[in-house]
Amino acid sequence: MSIVLYRVDERLIHGQVVLGWGGELHPRRYIVVDDALADSEWEQDLYRLAVPDDTEVLFRGVAEAREALTEWAAQAIRTVLLTRDVSTMAALGSEGGLGGVEVNLGGIHHRPGRTEVRPYLFIGDEEREGVRSLVAGGVHVSGRDLPGGLRVDAEQILG
């Protein structure tokens, strides 16, 4: 499978993803699944500034990403797939679309109604519902900020 990381991170493409995870996984492509960003060329240009020049970046809405997911996974290009929130990843994985893969939660920050699981991971009712939906669809959910960081599993995340 060429999608080497499925990650939920509110900041999407940033240093921790490009240097931390990218340094370990060596992706040649980042795919951001986000309905708002898929329609915003100027915001896409800003995110493209964060990756090396020889790295491809695609921005797709959820519906388009669901249709392309199997094709992306079958391609030889090493890919990191990112969503801004758990509900978008859950929508991408509905109807078994992500069954068998591992989704990494990192960079979900404090907001009223969320509780701290780890310093980089705060979970509220919406995130819990999304995690439960992913797990029910056969997805392995874990939390970790960087490749060498402590991994927490879905049970610990849900409390």
Structure report:
InterPro entries: PTS_IIB_sorbose-sp (IPR004720), PTS_IIB_sorbose-sp_sf (IPR036667). It is found in: Cytoplasm. Pfam families: PTSIIB_sorb (PF03830). This is PTS sugar transporter subunit IIB. 36% of the residues lie in helices and 24% in strands. It has 6 helices and 9 strands; from the N terminus they run E-H-E-H-E-H-E-H-E-E-E-H-E-E-H. The strands form 2 sheets. It has a 7-stranded mixed beta sheet, sandwiched between helices. A two-stranded antiparallel ribbon has the order 6-7. The longest helix has 13 residues. The chain is globular and about 40 Å long.
Spell out the key features of this protein.
transport, EC 2.7.1.-, two-stranded antiparallel ribbon, PTS sugar transporter subunit IIB, alpha/beta, PTS_IIB_sorbose-sp, 36% helix, 159 residues, PTS_IIB_sorbose-sp_sf, 7-stranded mixed sheet, globular, single chain
Low-confidence segments, given as residue ranges, are: none
Q: Reading side by side through the largest sheet, how are the strands ordered?
A: 3-2-4-1-5-8-9
Q: Secondary-structure element order, as H and E?
A: EHEHEHEHEEEHEEH
Helical coverage, percent range: 25-40%
pLDDT average, as an integer?
96
Cα-atom radius of gyration? 15 Å
Oligomeric assembly:
single chain
Percentage of residues in DSSP E strands? 15-25%
Strand segment count: 9
Tally of alpha and pi helices: 6
Bulk shape = globular
From the N-terminal CA to the C-terminal CA, the straight-line distance is 31 Å
Secondary structure class reads: alpha/beta
Largest sheet properties: 7 strands, mixed
